[in-house]
Amino acid sequence: MNSKELIESFADFAKFKNIDRPTMIRILEDVFRSIIRKKYNTDHNFDVIINVEKGDLEIWQKLEVVSDESEDIWDTDKICLTDARKIEPDFEVGEMVALPIKLEDFGRRVVMTAGQTLKQKIKDLEKENLFQAYKERVGEIINGEVNQVTNREIIVNDVDGNELFLPRTEQIQKDRFRKGDGVRAVVHRVEMVNGNPRIVLSRTSPVFLERLFENEVPEIIEGLIAIRKIVREPGERAKVAVESFDDRIDPVGACVGMKGSRIHGIVRELENENIDVINFTSNLELYIARALSPAKISSMKFDHDDKRVSAILKPDQVSLAIGKGGQNIKLAGKLVGYEIDVFRENEEGVTEDDIALEEFDDEIESWVIEELKRIGLDTAKSVLALSKEDLVRRTELEEETIEEVLQILRQEFEQE
Question: Domain S1 motif spans what residues (predicted)?
């Protein structure tokens, strides 16, 4: 392969990879200079001239003419007067000689290696460009197609055929993708792994929900409405605090849309995730009341030092405040930045299908019942409405004790 063939094949490959001309020339020059350094141990006195369009390559070695008796005669950038005059008889000491160097002079193996090196440099550049391009797109929604499904992740192709990765941990639990399916996700993070860019997508990130709202609600893009905070239990429930900068616009109504027209598409995309849109306020008590909706709070007690609040509710509101599996109270706490503890206003209130904890005194020790009542849980269903983790956090009971209590209470309702 001569220089013309090498440059033309490289140019075709570079154009296929959408590499611009200046970058192409820079890569070519870098490779040819590396070849020169291998043979001459330096490239500082060499000029490399490349014409990509014509496939021309010129390499010139610049040498300073010194006298035959000079101590510098053996330097790589010097030539003795006698040798210089063999090239041109009128050369004098101190003048510069330019010697043409042909690519073929480096040997066939070196030229073949140069061709492989050029292609590898293009691939490395392509990886770096992909890395930088997606680093700038972190937080942006991507539409792709599922190419492969594995136990750990889904490999997604973008419109240019680049491989993106959607790990199981970043998928909504109800997501079920097959090869060829379309998928929407947000660019979560971009990293280099063993020299290869790894673009990680997410459908569980609050940013994904934020971008979906921006797509559906023009007022957000226009700056009339701002999303202040989003908290999620992906695929289950989310709370979104919004604020309007125009008194004429109801931020909640704008986000939900007429008859839910705007939010329905978001809910479907998130596998029917239940989304509560809340009007943000700097009034903490009102903000907490809105965050615990649909429950209605009777009163609150704050411990600002520990960032905790005790919410006092009527018995029929406790389960609403806590929510399924404790989701409502957990998300409300994350939204407002306070730990929320729920207490019953009337400890004697027991619904018809509920059972007072005192009814279990033959199976549950009295001090355990008192500890549960201390945090406002005086019926079986009020205890079952909380998760084991929440009960451990809010009471002084051991995890094993709580497991026993939950098992006893569940058995009671299973028997019914």
Answer: 139-204
Residues 40-59 as b/e (b if ≥16 CB within 10 A, e otherwise) read eeebebbebebebeebebeb
Distances, alpha carbon 404 to alpha carbons 133, 238, 240, 365, 388, in Å: 54, 31, 36, 11, 11
303 vs 288: CA distance, rounded Å: 14
- Going along the chain from its start, the domains and CATH numbers come out as 3-133 (3.30.1480), 137-204 (2.40.50.140)
**Is the distance from CB of 378 to CB of 342 less than 8 angstroms?**
no
Q: Which distant-in-sequence residues (6+ apart) come within 8 Å of 231 by Cβ? A: 206, 238, 239, 331, 334, 335
Contact between residue 232 and residue 208 where contact means Cβ atoms under 8 Å apart: no
Q: Are strands 237-244 and 225-233 parallel, antiparallel or unpaired?
A: antiparallel
CA 157 vs CA 102, 125, 165: distances in Å: 44, 20, 9
> Which of 310, 311, 276, 309 has its CA nearest to residue 291?
276
β-pair type (274-279, 237-244): parallel
Provide CB contacts within 8 A for 260, sequence distance 6+.
none
- Taking only the tens of pLDDT, the chain with its 416 residues reads 566 666 776 666 666 666 777 777 888 888 888 888 888 888 889 998 887 677 677 889 999 999 988 888 888 889 999 989 999 999 999 999 998 888 777 777 877 777 778 778 878 888 988 999 999 999 999 999 999 999 999 999 999 899 999 999 999 999 999 999 999 999 999 999 998 999 999 999 999 999 999 999 999 999 999 999 999 999 999 999 999 999 999 999 999 999 899 999 999 999 999 999 999 999 999 999 999 988 999 889 898 998 999 888 888 888 888 888 788 999 999 999 999 988 877 545 444 456 778 778 888 998 998 888 888 787 888 888 888 888 888 888 899 999 999 999 888 877 55
